[in-house]
Amino acid sequence: MDYLLTVERLTKSFGGVMAVWDVSFKVQKGQLVGIIGPNGAGKTTLINLITGFVKPDKGKVIFKGEDITGLSPYKIAQKGIARSFQVVRPFLHLPSYKNLIIPLYSKRVKALRGGKYGDRDLVALDLLEDVGFEKDSSVPYKVASSLPHGYLKRLELARCLALRPELLILDELFSGMSMSEVAATMPIIEKLKEGGMTIIMVEHRLRELFRIADTVIVLNFGEKIAEGRPSEIIENELVKAAYLGAESA
Ligand SMILES: Nc1ncnc2c1ncn2[C@@H]1O[C@H](COP(=O)(O)OP(=O)(O)O)[C@@H](O)[C@H]1O
Ligand SMILES: [Mg+2]
User: Fold this and answer.
1) In the beta sheet, which residues pair with residue 60?
2) Rg from Cα positions in the chain
3) Burial of 133 by CB count in 10 Å (0-12 exposed, 13-18 middle, 19+ buried)?
4) Ligand with the closest atom to the CA of 45
5) Structural domain boundaries of the chain?
6) pTM of the predicted model as reported, rounded to 2 decimal places
7) Which of 58, 109, 136, 196 is most buried, by the most CB atoms less than 10 A from its CB?
């Protein structure tokens, strides 16, 4: 079996807190893998470990057969892993479409475009249109600071797509979105998946996630406590206990 990503026994503690403990999993090309777990379970840290924002104490990250453990976030992005941030941090003073400039000027995009960047503003406007910023409206031209939160989350998604990733990692993309924004964003994710994109989604909106995920990984106190198809995860007693425990805590 050919895996796009292999995570081997990743471990990271902060002081006394075991944020991620001995987590292993594999992702096949074209799969959508969900990662769930109560607050503080280590989901964001796991993403930070994969994307180079945090260095592991132990363990390995293999992407396309290459050991990328400990590389800088920039290098990992250039290899084709794009990640969104749970807490968005756009360039607030720039028009939305200008927020895509950094990935659009990257070496990776230049190489993928045959040595040419082309008209990046047009590419940016197209990418934004794909996530629901209508080109004919004023929205793509508005400064990011004036956009509602749901738009900023979709701007995050567009920023990731601008890199032309092979692996897209989304950290709670739906959080802070209204029901209608989630409903409008679901088809975008589905379309990416149909196009063959490999996606890891950390998500609290389980109903939506379980509809589109091929497999789901459950973290609790930094440990992987379950992995399986959504239908299996829903029935899993450990998972139920982890969520109930978190609610009553
Ligand atoms: N940079 C950090 N410094 C200290 N503790 C951290 C840091 N990042 C995360 N943690 C701790 O690690 C644990 C897992 O956090 P996190 O990965 O953000 O969980 P999740 O995304 O599942 O809510 C929490 O206890 C959190 O407080
Ligand atoms: Mg998190």
Assistant:
1) 8
2) 18
3) buried
4) 1
5) 3-80+166-248, 93-155
6) 0.95
7) 109
Q: How many Cα atoms sit within 13 Å of 234 on the Cβ side?
A: 9
CA dist list (Å): 75 to 21, 107, 108: 25, 10, 10
Task: Spell out the residues 6+ positions from residue 128 whose beta carbon is closer than 8 angstroms to its own.
Answer: 96, 97, 100, 135, 139, 140, 155, 158
Is residue 249 predicted with pLDDT exceeding 80? no
Candidate of 12, 17, 35, 169 to mutate for ligand 1, largest count of ligand atoms within 8 Å of Cβ: 17
The ligand 1 site (C-beta within 6 Å) comprises 14, 17, 19, 37, 39-45
- Which residue CA neighbors atom 5 of ligand 1 most closely? 14
**198-225 pLDDT per residue, tens:** 999 999 999 999 999 999 999 999 999 9
Atom of ligand 1 nearest to the CA of 202: 21
Q: Which atom of ligand 1 is least distant from the CA of 172?
A: 21
CA nearest neighbour of 32 among 207, 192, 220: 192
Mean pLDDT of 180-197: 95
pLDDT, tens digit, 9 for 90 and up, residues 13-48: 999 999 999 999 999 999 999 999 999 999 999 999
CA-to-CA distance for 63 and 68, rounded, in angstroms? 7
Q: What ligand has the least distance to the C-alpha of 42? A: 1
Fold of 3-80+166-248: Rossmann fold (3.40.50)
CA distance 187 to 204: 18
Closest to 87 (Cα-Cα) out of 162, 171, 20, 155: 171
